[in-house]
Fold these 2 entries.
Entry 1:
Amino acid sequence: MPGWELMVAAYALIWAFVFGYIFWLFRRQEKLRRDVEALSGALAARDERQPGKSQALARGAKRKAGRRL
Amino acid sequence: MKIADRVAPGLTVLSGLAMLAAIYAALLYAPTERVMGPLQRIFYFHVPTAAVAFLGFAVAFVASIAYLASGRRNWDALAYSAAEIGEVFASLVLLTGMLWARAAWNTWWTWDPRLTTTLVLWLIYAGYLILRGSVEDEVRRARYAAVLGIIGFVDVPVVFMAIRWWRTIHPVVFEASGVNLEPSMLTAFLVSLAAFVILFVTLLVLRVRLEALGDEVEYWRRRVQ
């Protein structure tokens, strides 16, 4: 294989890996965001049945998430 | 979460621009090397990926020590994120090195000290990632991973020094006596190195943010149950 073909292959490989990794990060992030929404929805549904308890839990979760980073 | 959310878009744009500059420097600005021809241009991305892999493992090393000292989850998340990114770049070092070796040495792989120690490094951190996926208990997982993150880092200086300690066919560009590069080639290399460091920081911020989001999901899940 001539040198320039191997050079192109090396650069293509680097970009495929980097973009593949970034794509994986964003896909996983979207999934986790959907999970947070689904869980907060489930908590809100429970709040309708047990008013007060879920609201206190939601406030606690928000405080904890804010402290993390 | 809030700090990471604020800096991530700016860092992403900055790393995109830096990468464009690096591509320009490596493919257009730097002159074609006389002996190896265009193949030598692999160097401008191969060495920075190695540097960034080492940087990732160094961050994981420091964060692992900090986790064992403090027990704080933030350090564990940072160590995990940095080790994973380091492993991505270590994979690229091995693959781009194999492409270079095919043309330069007429073989995809040889058990040269630099190549062998790099493969050992890759295997250590592959083990680190497998360990993280296989221990259920959060605290034990973080503690075992921290210990491996500290012990595994011992191989990084060995990889770096391999071409100085042992007889090797791997090229030596950076020597104690100076740098074996033309000034324009050195400039292209430094631009590329800076771009890869910015890319590393961007990926680290995104990855740590992902860990924080995962923790948030886990917290809500426990509360819902």
Note: Chain B touches chain A at residues 1-4, 36-39, 41-42, 45-46, 49, 73-74, 85, 88, 91-92, 95-96, 99-100, 102-103, 199, 203, 206-210, 212-217, 219-221, 223-224 (CB under 8 Å).
Entry 2:
Amino acid sequence: MLKIENLHVSVEGKEILKGVSLEVKKGEIHAIMGPNGSGKSTLSSVIAGNEDYEVTKGNIYFNNENIEDLSAEERAHKGIFMSFQYPVEIPGITVTNFIKTAINSNLKARGLKEMPANEMLKKIREKANLLEIDSRFLSRSLNQGFSGGEKKRNEIFQMAMLEPTLAILDETDSGLDIDALRIVASGVNKLKNKDNATVVITHYQRLLDHIIPDYVHVLQDGKIAKSGDKDLALQLEEKGYDWI
Amino acid sequence: MSLKEKLVSSFLAFELDTDINSPVHDIRSKSIKEFEKIGFPDRKNEFWKYTPIKKVLSEELTVFKKKRHLIDFEKVKDFFIGGIESYKIILIDGTYDPLWSNTTHKGVDICILSSVLENDKYSNIISHYYNKLIDTNDSFSLLNTSFSKEGAYIHIPKNVELDKPIEIIHINSGGESSLMLQPRNLIILEEGSKAQIIESHYSLQEKNTDLSNSNNDHIDPLTNTLTEIYVEENANLDYYKIQNDLDSTSIIDNTYIDQKKDSVASCHTFSFGGNIVRNNLNFYQNGKNINSILKGITILGSNQHTDHHTLVHHASPNCESYQEYKGIYNDKSTGVFNGKVVVDKIAQKINAFQQNNNLLMGDHSSVNTKPQLEIFADDVKCSHGCTIGQLDKSALYYLKTRGIPEKEAKGLLTYAFANNVLENVKMQVLKTKIKKIIANKIGVSLGFEL
């Protein structure tokens, strides 16, 4: 599904990723771990299509298509979703209206008809229940004044609504208390099926107790220093990143 | 002859039908004398620095209407708020239109000002309320007082909560160009009363616009409107101004609001077009525990210009004022926000907030924003802030990652930016109408019900 080959990425002239290769197949969950500044967020941003990041070398393929020249919205239309580490606050637009606009934009881009209002409402209710989101929350302004946990829950709610084929969760566990972590993780697990894939980017092992990865990769100084199964995460927790 | 000379010499003829012994004639005569002394402001005047008002003060303008012009009901109907029952005071080219208006004298007075000015029964009202709030250094207020004969008169007695909103609709029929209208409204909310009022100004496209002479003979109309409002003890007023006019029409609006203790008054100004629009909105707080709310949304394009001058005069302790103005400027449009807050020495423990945020969307659009605080008390909280900028790039990116294309994402963010100011609008139908105008002005179809 996702194939990254020898990816080099620079931001404002500084090279952050120095040759990352990664393949994610459908049905898989990959975890990318690494210390601060190792390039984890850069990797997720460059997959999602942030134009501040410049690919200087290498390729990103999504379903065998080179997506380097696609805009962020075109990548979304193809089925790529990123859960933000720091979701942006947008006063003046409600969660519901935002998600309706997003859903219909995606349908339109894929040449499909807009979702009827009653169907939309039903889906919103169903997915809100999944993430234990209060209906009052949906009529609040997007992310404005949300707690850290509410913001992350809202990200996963959007993911549930948009049903991407590839979900990248960038530090979704940061700022979450134990209960919120459980709700978010269980939401992610329920959305998982044999046709989609998830990339979990995290600093700590604790999220991986709830979302069990098939593969764990350690990113260090812009390169994948080590790959393994879920036990690698446990070893890291015990021995620290210096051990690699 | 300059416009000033022309207006001054028009005065006697204009007053021919007025009883020279009436108090109103006296007020008008004094005003025209004052106007003659000070004339029109130019840009050397700090108060008018950023608004080229001379541009619309053509000497061809006249206060005399040639004849009455009839317009279709279908056209008038478009200007109604719609969807709810309302009282209506409709003026066409400054003349009251009884056919489509809906006035009342049952328990409240919702009628026209001429009936007050010309009727001895109301001499008490004239001596107590008429022309008591105006700034006598303001040329346009003086001019309006000199020439105004018609407008809305609203008087809500003690403890009456009005059952439906009032619409004051001024229409320029387009029947003749170069008309200078001088509408005047007097509004009194007695102790404990409550009302919602919507004031709007519209112009119809000029009839028989002949291209061959349009450049020579055609002079764009100018409306110089003035409203005096009294909000007595514990009364509650929501006032809305809709300025969504043709590119050719200019408006100068002077509104004076006097508040007594424990009262709440809000004024929302929606400025969506016109040639030059100048709003002077003045709040005077005379009593404790007063709350004044001033909000505005300005969305302009082409060469339009809107200028908001606000004044909140805190003359009593323990009061609040809250100002929030947002502007979106496209193409070559320009804007001004000048928010003045005066805090008298006696007005301790007040809280005055002022915020003006602007989005410059056009390469040649510009805005001048200036907070002005004059504080003579020492235990007060006064805050102000202004921003001028473009849409937030990170927010734009966030929307795009959700599959919302760039154009729609920009539209949505612009809409969200303005929409935020509407949270205090209690009248749902009005809120929806304004949201639709905003979406339309921004030129984006939003994928949800407004």
Note: The radius of gyration of chain A is 18 Å.
